[in-house]
From TrEMBL:
This is Iron transporter. Keywords: Signal. Signal peptide: none annotated. It comes from Halorussus gelatinilyticus. The keyword Membrane does not apply. It holds the Pfam family Iron_transport. Residues 173-182 have a biased composition (Acidic residues). Residues 154-165 have a biased composition (Basic and acidic residues). The keyword Transport does not apply. Residues 154-182 are annotated as: Disordered.
Length: 182
């Protein structure tokens, strides 16, 4: 199977459905590019197997945490000074791939490692992503290693469903990390 096969019509999906999936993926990639290039301090993306893996880095930020059904608490960062976001999309159509296990390690220029740490799924009003607030040594140049383990959900479609089955790893080098809290 080629690395990035185009999805094809089948008894499960027709051309209109494929076109709509592509439009959804195009919109997701546009939102990812906007987050990585315009909103965050820095970002980037790479293709790896069935995926495109993207990242964005910004200051640590507060988030709502569900405490009990219907009851949320806003939680500010403690010592965390870096927010790392990772997007995992289908390389063929660009749509977000949920339920992956995403592990990240940041390594500073002097070799100090933060992680490996699992990045949980985060809801964001503009872009579903995996992410977490982290405590890093400070501003500087880092290497960010990201490992994406395959999701365990079932896949429809005998023609198009045999994807997302391999763990992939990507490395983003010379990443300018700016720390702080938002």
């Amino acid at each position: 199977m080629p690395d990035n096969p185009a999805k094809q019509t089948s008894d499960e999906v027709d051309q209109t459905q494929l076109d709509l999936a592509q439009q959804a993926g195009d919109a997701y990639r546009e939102a990812l590019d906007y987050m990585a290039e315009e909103v965050a301090h820095t970002g980037g993306k790479q293709e790896a197997g069935d995926y495109v893996v993207g990242f964005a880095q910004e200051e640590a930020e507060g988030m709502y945490v569900l405490q009990d059904e219907g009851r949320f608490e806003w939680v500010e960062p403690d010592d965390e000074n870096c927010h790392l976001e990772v997007a995992v999309c289908d390389a063929a159509d660009g749509r977000f791939v949920p339920e992956c296990t995403v592990i990240a390690t940041l390594t500073s220029e002097d070799g100090e490692e933060v992680g490996p740490t699992r990045l949980p799924l985060l809801w964001h009003p503009g872009l579903y992503h995996y992410g977490k607030d982290l405590e890093v040594p400070g501003d500087g140049t880092y290497t960010i290693d990201v490992r994406v383990e395959p999701p365990e959900f079932k896949r429809h479609d005998e023609q198009n469903g045999d994807r997302y089955g391999e763990t992939v790893a990507v490395t983003f080098e010379d990443v300018d990390v700016e720390t702080g809290q938002d």
